[in-house]
Amino acid sequence: MLKSRGLFNINTRIRENAEDLSTALHSHMLKVFAPDARKELRLFSAGEAAELLGISTSFLRKLHFDEKIADVQATAGGRRLYSAANLLEIRETLEKTAKTKGSYQRGRGPEDKVQVLSFLNFKGGSGKTTSAIHTAQRLALKGYRVLCVDIDPQASLTTLFGYTPEVDFIESGTIYDAIRYDDPVPFSQIVQKTFFTGIDLAPGGLLLQEFEHETPQALRTNIQPPFFARLATTLQEVEDDYDVILFDCPPQLGYLTMAALCASTGVFITIVPNMLDVASMSQFLQMSADLLDVVSDAGADMRFDFMRFLINRYEPNDGPQQQVVAFLRQLFAEEVMVAPMLKSTAISDAGLTQQTIYEVERSAFHRNTYDRAVDSLNLVNDEIETLLQQAWGR
Asked: Measured between alpha carbons, how far is 272 from 204 in angstroms, rounded to an integer?
């Protein structure tokens, strides 16, 4: 570095900053989690379990009293605590005696197609990853078989599942291995089980950037399948194992995002309600339409079950935000989701330990703050579940 003149080599400085930050993040994780430990999903109270199962707490107690379901872990005071595996077992028991098939196991049937959802926006910071992981976890807790596919080279979704992409998948193991043009591997080889019961992960990482760099050459040499069909094609190997597949897309309209869109059956465009973000979204929609026209002409299937705008980081008492939301609802009507995702310190604070609001204990926050965040997320994700059920004709 040329310190005497105040100049420095930017490549060297960036590398130093990257190494310092990586070391600091590793130190932070060691404080939060024990060395070599993987994340574990917490247990749920009887009230939480009953809400997820769609029954009353009194009925849940009666099931135990009648010995129709197995006993579960309890506190010293006798309060029952349920694991996600316990919830799946109880669902199976309830479904056997349900008057209506699918009352408790609401995943897709033999004739239903897998639902593939993309969360995207052209602008970073719009809450794509936060929305995707909370949706995945809520659906898994309600009994759906979920696969999360992280196609963002920044791999934030992968990190939230307890991995360190720059260490765990530095040379291989990401979704890139399954969609690369040179000797791709079977999709099943890169799928990881996660700590969250009901969710598998196809990890992301910096190697995904290679797909963006290699695609122009692949187009010139006509390598098949083309970029827009590679995700859809490789997913066919495992789609029978899941009810829902979720893509966390990068904040750019590149080849990866286009490939995810061409593999999807539904799309959620996250939007922070301010005019700068709306203006950015306008450009994103126009460019998306132009590019989708091109891949449609090349043979891609553009038929979707639904598209929704998801209002994110919404503050109900913010007058300008209310005006923007009203503007969007007037413009797009039912394509704007009824439930917005509220801005919450509980969600932000959970993120400090790389957790979601569904993972943290209620006692770790002010009760009203936590309940407000959970209620908001549940409304959003249950609305998404309704869209899935409607797509399956229910």
From this structure: 25
Q: Are 234 and 187 in contact (CB under 8 A)?
A: yes
- What is the tens place of the pLDDT at every residue in 235-254? 999 999 999 999 999 988 88
Asked if residue 280 lies in contact with residue 272, where contact means CB atoms within 8 angstroms, the answer is no
Instruction: Give the model confidence (pLDDT) of 174-207 as tens digits.
Output: 999 999 999 999 999 999 999 999 999 999 999 9
CA neighbor of 160 nearest in space, from 133, 141, 140, 142: 133
CA pair distance 164, 195, nearest whole angstrom: 14
B/e letters for 36-71, b = 16+ CB within 10 Å, e = fewer, are eeebebebbbbebbbbbbebeeeebeebeeeeebee
The rounded distance, in Å, linking the Cα atoms of 215 and 291 is: 15
Find out whether 274 and 324 touch, Cβ atoms under 8 Å: yes
Kindly report each contact of residues 357-360 with a partner whose C-beta sits within 8 Å and lies 24 or more positions away, as own/partner: 357/134, 358/134, 358/137, 358/138, 358/141, 359/39, 359/41, 359/42, 359/137, 360/42
CA distances from 50 to 89, 90, 142, 378 (A): 13, 10, 11, 14
Burial class (CB in 10 A: 0-12, 13-18, 19+), 387: middle
Q: What is the pLDDT of residue 1?
A: 41
* Count of CB atoms situated within 10 Å of the CB of 145: 18
Q: Indicate the average pLDDT of the chain.
A: 88
Pairing type for strands 192-193 and 199-202 reads: antiparallel
Q: What are phi and psi of 110, to 5 degrees?
A: -60, -30
DSSP 164-203: -HHHHTSSS-STHHHH-SSSPPPGGGT-EE-SSTTEEEE-
Nearest CA among 375, 319, 322 for reference residue 344: 375
Beta bridge partners of 307: 267
